[in-house]
What does this fold into?
Amino acid sequence: RIYPLMRVTLTTSDGASVTVSRQLTKHSGFIEKAITDMAVDDNAVPLSAVAVDVDDATLKLVIEWLTEHRDDALPYPEKTDEERRADDIPAWDQAFVQKWDTKEDQQQTLYAVITAADKLDIKGLLDMTCKTLANKINGKTVEEMREILQLECDFTEEELAEIRKENAWCEN
Amino acid sequence: KRGTRVAKPRAASKKGMATSSSPTSIDTRSARKRKNEEATGDYFPILGLPTELVSHSISFLSMKDRLRVAGVNKKLRKIDSESKNMLSGSTKLRMFQSLNVSKKIYISFFKLIGITYKDGRFFSNRDIEVYKDRTITTCDLWTIFDEGVEIQINGLTYATSRLTVIFHETHEQLEEAKNKNEL
It folds into this structure.
């Protein structure tokens, strides 16, 4: 049971403290487990601080996303393979990512938010950011993928010939 | 050999975040292009992420894009082949691949589908077509066509092999696959 006015204080890896509603933190498996483990009275306002291994700047982005998604259904609906796709990111989320995805430090932020979503166990945010990453290489050629992902081809010529042969059925 | 430099994920370096994989080599040949990509935010050193997050990210791609990802480099090929999200619940399965298949398993598999492998030859009561690719010298690649099903087995003479099964939906797709083997 989540009381709308219940608040929890989060302490970040760089020493900041942020107090947020449990309406937001209920989407974080990590925070909810930490609160449960504390075995505190749910009526305590605010609850004891929960330490999160996320820096303040990233946590602010996470909270911004959680605020928009505070009414999302829980538990987070698991997707079947049939439903797994990268092109169904909601418009608000696209705009949210776009705010920092076009900046010079976009990869830092995307990297930070993906890992924060993973650490905090926020499935919706993790899926959205991983889809954003997938969209960077969606429909690209292998060579373009290497450019985007900054990876060198380390296959031998024979291995490459073998891969081309294996993949020929879907490339045509 | 092309010159290389070591790329480290900026997030990890600037924000002190832990990474689970080794630094990623990148090609300097395309440095100019990459600079443009940096400006537009269209690049991402994916192997700076923990393996499970790389796997989760590529799970949202289509099969076609995933096969391309597996052709990028060895690490991504390994991650893709080990992905748990590859086939579970798939309702449009047209191809599956299994790595490190032992001799005992692939012989059982062939037996199950009515094909016998003995002394380097395949036998069946059905009308199957068997091709051996002679263009690959390091390991042997056999392709067997059994009506609309194409079975590839790579590395039969090794301790483990790679088994690939492809279901061709149309006669045209089947003929195209056969023609490639005849070449």
